[in-house]
Amino acid sequence: MNTKINILLIEDDKSICSYITASLSGNGYRVITALSGKEGVSLAASFCPDVILLDLGLPDIDGCDVLRQLRSWSSISVIVISARVEEQDKVMALDLGADDYITKPFGPAELMARIRTSLRHSHSAMPGRVYRAAGLEIYFDKRMIYMEGSEVHLTQIEYQLLSLLAENSGRVLTYKFIMNTIWGPYTDGNNQILRVNMANIRRKIEKNPAQPQYVFTEIGIGYRMRENESV
Amino acid sequence: MNTKINILLIEDDKSICSYITASLSGNGYRVITALSGKEGVSLAASFCPDVILLDLGLPDIDGCDVLRQLRSWSSISVIVISARVEEQDKVMALDLGADDYITKPFGPAELMARIRTSLRHSHSAMPGRVYRAAGLEIYFDKRMIYMEGSEVHLTQIEYQLLSLLAENSGRVLTYKFIMNTIWGPYTDGNNQILRVNMANIRRKIEKNPAQPQYVFTEIGIGYRMRENESV
DNA sequence: AACTGCTGTTAAGATAGTGTTAAGAAATGA
DNA sequence: TCATTTCTTAACACTATCTTAACAGCAGTT
User: Which CATH superfamily is domain B5-121 in?
Assistant: First the structure.
């Protein structure tokens, strides 16, 4: 079972890379590095990290453009790391959708505190946060799911899908949004893969998958999860 | 309707107070000031601001304690403002639940960008529109419809049609306009499909479809929905 | 009374959307 | 390396939905 938080570091300076990677992985995070903006965007799509650390000074694409591209399909937390201290740089990055902006130099403790804050904001890894409805319980911080008290094993994708729905319980999430969030922006319009995963999830958490109690289909639109009763 | 964003500034230095207040209220925010930690906590409770700006260096209570007290009952966004640049101060404040940490000096543009980011993070600031009349409720953000408290299932087209009428409740929408909006411009003048869908909707939401209470027919013109009572 | 124009209702075939299964590919872990 | 799990794709069955057509009802008019 993989409970590690995934972090994508987009940074071209290799010494900074190894410095950040060392301090983060030493604290239980899994870090993946992209040395260019292009690589960063594609890794964000394929790797689906929990947080992205983005250096604005990249060799190929301007960091703001990376941010723009990411935000066109994803709402993954982005913490911008920059040597630029000018106010207008910060304002631009934040208004493009960055969740935080740290100026170099900074210490590892601050970085990790800001990562924790970002995770809290993304409402998923927040400690103690729980989805509960009827016999189903989802502990977001532990990435654990229980059905009538006994543990349910979901694969990585199944967990992502179910927790995405649970975080937005009561609301309809469109197929397109779900596909974008989990499989990234470069998918054809075919939702087959989503249907298969939903069938697998339902087989694991629903007593009678043909008459679901937790995840409902809104035909032609998407899926909607039963409202969280724990709040 | 008051759409102004409310900001609570907890800061004892009056010159900073007036400086921040001036720049924020000049940009459409409503600012309330507390000159001490105690006052800040009680104002947070009574005014329910959207964002709190908290200076750590207060005369009466330590800023971190203010934060602790706030977080014991509230999840209002808190942006900490501090002259302390030490890493451990930032880490402590962020881990106590602060949403951001800005070190003095900072410009008004950055402050406002960080406020915007905080507002984005707390998506409590968007209530979601509702149509309500007699026993019928339509929650547009959840795409849900309730009749006397129990859920009503509408198909895609039925939902489009009903929400179109609800968004224009009290006004007559012509057949042509409705057809254009839902079936596109390339339809013949035949409204059969619209009549069928309206019959299906009425069967689902009206007690007696022959004497409708929600959607009225204006013969020769179109349909009109009963006025929204929720505003 | 019969006709006309309009709307509501019902039913059935056509269509599109969804669920399920299984098999091979890819990734993971020992 | 091999064994196991997970992911993806394709085929097919099934269901819900959409559309069309036929008809009933209800004014108002001739």
Answer: Response regulator (3.40.50.2300)
